[in-house]
Inverse folding.
């Protein structure tokens, strides 16, 4: 529908190329984490980018996905794919339930509610030690997984799985944004009362968007558990919500490709800086301030700006 | 004369101590253009909110097609064919003209639950959207963002969106407000070309517009209907003229009355 319809294809090609190149630039385990947190950041991107809803609590859904996946694999002997599916569903259901309550609140109240629910989730994990392992997390998961007969044993095949998983979610998000449903989400972001006046039940659309974002976060939580081989309680901590938000903002929420850029940047910088200086998060904070002030579209938009400049130049020539 | 399609009966709306509408009644018929005029503070904005569903009355009943809709939400009323436009253009500024109209077409066709197929490939919906844009001479601007097109065209797009929702009853909230004089003509043509079978209630200040289109005029003063009648009769009424004490209103009226 837009004149810019070619752009998603270009973004897809760049993302695919980046995923292929990534394990050759950084260690495969780091590359896996980049793919996992990029997936998690997509859940922020679809909310903030498409509907304009700022969630400070996506860690809650990533956390429930992680615990559900961990418990099902360890105690129910469930296979990898079905456990991931259940992690996704649990994120969707929890987010859908909480979402139906909070989408009627706007602005700062919405943000505070996402934060409050995320905190409740964290304390619930600590309180139900018997199920979650409390502060020790959930350990004793198998160290090796099979998928459709192939075993994920070495870091590179692990990365292949994680990159594939991210790419599928990336395509899905891109597809949803371009669909009529996605156009309605954009309309709600731009002008909520007007969307209502067009006959759209806005609260229901927002709830579905929140549930979708919860599903993506839950899926990412499952991926994280498969990667680690145990469930760390930090998955459901506030820091996780924060990290997903920061990654999405650094990368840029205008395109789902921003999630990968943001995650790669965040993970590589934190890996490199944490060896030199334990307070490396301060630098991330500085960077975030700089981005918000000077490049509100995030790193992904920088590429687009440069290419726009370049096109203008060639057009002049 | 057809039966009324939209009826408001003995409506009271209070905001604290302020009585915005009291004992207000109105009936709107298919195939007729009704106009509602009144000085500032008469309750016109409240009325639009009341009929479209953003304001709940303290007393009274609203019915559409003989069905009580007093407690029904805005979105539901739209689905029943009661559609409004906005006095101050209320559009999706960062979306393109085509996307704006697509949203209305897609809602009307019930196609917006689709999460999968790209919106741009829904040929039938796109064609309907483009057809409406063609009718309102907006087809050439379809790929531009709404924030980039002139205000007059934004007003036209308001009407285009309303038409895309296939209204049975259309509330036009000051359609000509804020349009530069040289662009008013296109808008009036658009109003003139509205489907003849729908019921229209136009809230309008401009007496030229009222005279040209309306067959029945309501005069609203202090939340009550002062008088109802054909435009010429209403404008000649000394009672109505007394209400418009503002000199601009007076002269506007005087010119019209002489013209009649």
């Amino acid at each position: 529908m837009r004149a810019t319809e070619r752009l998603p294809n270009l973004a897809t090609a760049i993302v695919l190329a980046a995923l292929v190149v990534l394990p050759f630039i950084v260690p495969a385990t780091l590359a896996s984490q980049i793919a996992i947190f990029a997936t998690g950041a997509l859940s922020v991107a679809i909310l903030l980018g498409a509907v304009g809803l700022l969630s400070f609590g996506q860690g809650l859904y990533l956390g429930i996905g992680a615990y559900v996946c961990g418990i099902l694999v360890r105690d129910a002997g469930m296979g990898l794919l079905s456990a991931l599916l259940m992690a996704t569903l649990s994120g969707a259901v929890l987010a859908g339930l909480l979402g139906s309550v909070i989408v009627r609140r706007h602005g700062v109240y919405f943000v505070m509610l996402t934060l409050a629910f995320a905190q409740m989730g964290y304390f619930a994990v600590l309180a139900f030690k018997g199920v979650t392992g409390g502060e020790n997390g959930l350990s004793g998961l198998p160290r090796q997984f099979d998928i459709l007969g192939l075993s994920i044993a070495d870091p590179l095949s692990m990365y292949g799985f994680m990159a594939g998983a991210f790419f599928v979610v990336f395509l899905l998000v891109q597809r949803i944004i371009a669909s009529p449903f996605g156009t309605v989400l954009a309309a709600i972001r731009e002008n909520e009362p007007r969307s209502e006046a067009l006959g759209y039940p806005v609260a229901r659309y927002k709830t579905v968007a929140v549930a979708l974002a919860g599903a993506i976060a839950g899926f990412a939580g499952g991926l994280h558990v498969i990667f680690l081989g145990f469930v760390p309680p930090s998955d459901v901590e506030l820091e996780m919500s924060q990290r997903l938000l920061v990654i999405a903002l650094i990368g840029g929420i205008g395109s789902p490709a921003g999630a990968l850029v943001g995650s790669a940047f965040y993970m590589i910088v934190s890996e490199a800086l944490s060896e030199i200086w334990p307070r490396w998060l301060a630098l991330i904070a500085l960077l975030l301030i700089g981005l918000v002030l000077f490049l509100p579209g995030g790193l992904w938009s920088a590429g687009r700006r440069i290419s726009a400049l370049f096109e203008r130049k060639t057009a002049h020539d | 004369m057809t039966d009324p399609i939209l009826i408001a009966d003995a409506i009271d709306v209070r905001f604290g101590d302020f009585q915005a509408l009291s004992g207000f009644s109105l009936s709107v018929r298919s195939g007729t253009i009704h106009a509602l005029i009144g000085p500032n503070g008469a309750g016109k904005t409240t009325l639009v909110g009341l009929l479209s569903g953003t304001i709940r009355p303290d007393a009274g009943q609203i019915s559409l097609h003989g069905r009580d809709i007093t407690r029904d939400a805005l979105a539901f009323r739209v689905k029943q064919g009661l559609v409004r436009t906005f006095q101050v253009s209320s559009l999706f500024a960062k979306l393109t003209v085509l996307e704006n109209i697509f949203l209305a077409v897609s809602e009307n066709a019930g196609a917006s639950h689709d999460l999968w197929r790209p919106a741009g490939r829904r040929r039938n919906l796109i064609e309907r959207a483009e057809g409406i844009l063609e009718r309102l001479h907006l087809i050439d601007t379809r790929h531009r963002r709404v924030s980039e097109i002139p205000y007059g065209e934004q007003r036209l797009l308001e009407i285009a969106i309303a038409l895309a929702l296939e209204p049975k009853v259309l509330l036009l909230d000051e359609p000509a407000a804020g349009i530069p004089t040289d662009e008013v003509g296109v808008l009036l043509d658009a109003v003139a070309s509205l489907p003849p079978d729908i019921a229209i209630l136009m809230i309008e200040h401009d007496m030229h517009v009222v005279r040209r289109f309306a067959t029945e005029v309501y005069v609203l003063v202090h939340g009550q209907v002062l008088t109802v009648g054909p435009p010429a009769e209403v404008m000649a009424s000394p009672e109505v003229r007394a209400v418009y004490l503002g000199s601009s209103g007076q002269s506007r009226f005087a010119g019209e009355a002489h013209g009649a």
